[in-house]
Amino acid sequence: MGDRAYVEIVCREKDEPLFEALGFMKEFRHALPANVVTMADAEASEGATTELQALAEKGIVFRGWHDAGGGYDGACFASAGGKYHEVPRLNHSDLPCIEVHVDGTVDADQLLAASEFLKASDRAGETLGFPSGIEQEDEAP
């Protein structure tokens, strides 16, 4: 077992056995949509990143986060459309964290990754039954 971290995910209830096989256990959370569960692994090896990527590639929809380990930062992640998106996060936040360089600029690749993650997280959330968090443009009459 490698470096361990706490990992929490939200997924479809029907996919619960897939996550249990990885060591996740069901966590009780209020106000979840029907047929959606929260699962956690308090000591996931390397944040279970490799295993979660494999589930994402199989089309399993989920989103969540992991704490920092000894050799990596905390991150938020989402699986949508057969792809896994992961970006750094601040503790106690579901939002991506982007480094600001000394000269005040941000890394364009990090900004793009954060944007792609937010879109994937929103798509995963809609699939799971959560309302969209992205403002929709009004269509002209």
Structure description:
This protein is of the alpha+beta class and 141 residues long. It has one domain. Helix content is 25%, strand content 28%. A six-stranded antiparallel beta sheet has the order 2-3-1-4-5-6. The termini are far apart. The mean pLDDT is 91.
Rg calculated over all Cα atoms: 16 Å
SS class: alpha+beta
Strand content: 25-35%
Main beta-sheet strand count, sense and barrel state: 6 strands, antiparallel
Q: Strand tally, please? A: 6
Q: Give the uncertain stretches in residue-range form.
A: none
Average pLDDT? 91
Count of DSSP H/I helices: 3
Order of H and E elements: EHEEHEEEH
State the end-to-end distance: 58 Å
* Helix content percent band: 10-25%
Backbone shape:
globular
**Strand arrangement across the biggest beta sheet:** 2-3-1-4-5-6
The quaternary state of the protein chains shown equals: single chain
Number of domains: 1
Outline of the structure:
The chain is an alpha+beta fold and 141 residues long. Strands 2-3-1-4-5-6 form a six-stranded antiparallel sheet. Helix content is 25%, strand content 28%.
Give the topology, please.
Elements: E1 4-12, H1 16-20, E2 25-27, E3 36-45, H2 49-57, E4 62-66, E5 75-80, E6 83-88, H3 108-128
Antiparallel strand pairs: 1-3, 1-4, 2-3, 4-5, 5-6
Name some characteristics of this structure.
141 residues, alpha+beta, 3 helices, 6 strands, 25% helix
